[in-house]
Design goal:
By secondary structure, the protein is an all-alpha fold. The chain contains 15 helices and no strands. It has one domain. Helix 3 runs antiparallel to helix 12. The two termini are about 30 Å apart.
């Protein structure tokens, strides 16, 4: 991982070369989750509770989903912008380097300004965790960390899987945004407020429920404690997505 951190340091130094522009971008990006949070608070101002979930509990779910998304966005930005690597020939150059191709794509981009959203989501996570009515233990703290890590891997897996489409289409398909940006909004609420079809689809196919909803129920003592370990399934999901990407690499013949 030494090469990864060297690339990250390079991207950080590059971003800070123009500090005024960086801080303006940082401020604009932080406003995005703030506006979404205001919408959640206004919703609960009208209804008080949602299917038995209180505002702090919803905020905890919201914070986990947003923090996981922001971390995946920072780490996997190269896959989100993968179509550009294909079009300008950068990916061809990466393929001849004697390094793991997944690692090289991860190293290709790092949007430092996105860490502003991660910092905001982290602060909200701590605030909501202290007010959600959870009797915290060492095991529950571990579960909360696994939820964030598992969510990061799920979103990263989606970035990787949809990047693989560029091997056949060159351009990134906009349907990917339904599952990445849309998935962040969807996972920000407990799945039992949705229909059974969506609950099952986003539990067994794309495991948002596994990384957020089911372990959150375990934290609130509404489900068996072992459900708190379900975010580990995200390792299987991201490995499957990586394999899809590698299949595309094996069939890649350059964009010309």
């Amino acid at each position: 991982m030494g090469i990864y951190w060297k690339h990250i340091k390079m991207h950080v130094r590059s971003a800070l070369e123009y500090r005024s522009a960086f801080y303006l971008q940082l401020g604009g990006i932080v406003l995005q989750p703030v506006s979404a949070l205001i919408g959640v608070v206004l919703l609960f101002g009208s209804f008080g509770a949602l299917e038995g979930w209180t505002l702090p509990q919803i905020l905890l779910c919201f914070a986990v989903a947003n923090l996981a998304f922001c971390l995946a966005e920072c780490v996997g930005w190269g896959f989100d912008r993968f179509s550009r690597l294909i079009r300008d020939g950068t990916f061809d150059r990466l393929m001849v380097q004697p390094r793991n191709i997944l690692l090289l794509v991860l190293c290709s981009e790092f949007p430092l300004e996105r860490l502003g959203k991660a910092a905001f989501a982290s602060a909200l996570l701590v605030f909501a965790a202290l007010r959600a009515g959870i009797a915290w233990t060492a095991y529950k703290v571990l579960v909360l960390c696994l939820m964030v890590l598992g969510g990061t891997l799920v979103f990263l897996g989606l970035y990787i899987a949809f990047a693989a489409m560029c091997f056949w289409s060159v351009e990134r398909m906009e349907i990917a945004n339904i599952f990445t940006d849309g998935g962040r909004e969807f996972a920000g609420y407990p799945l039992d407020i949705y229909s059974k079809f969506f609950t099952r689809f986003f539990t067994y196919v794309i495991p948002f429920g596994v990384m957020n909803y089911l372990p959150l129920k375990a934290l609130l003592d509404r489900a068996p404690a072992w459900q708190g370990l379900l975010p580990l399934y995200s390792l299987v999901f991201v490995c499957a997505c990586a394999e899809v990407f590698l299949i595309g690499v094996r069939h890649y013949r350059s964009a010309g």
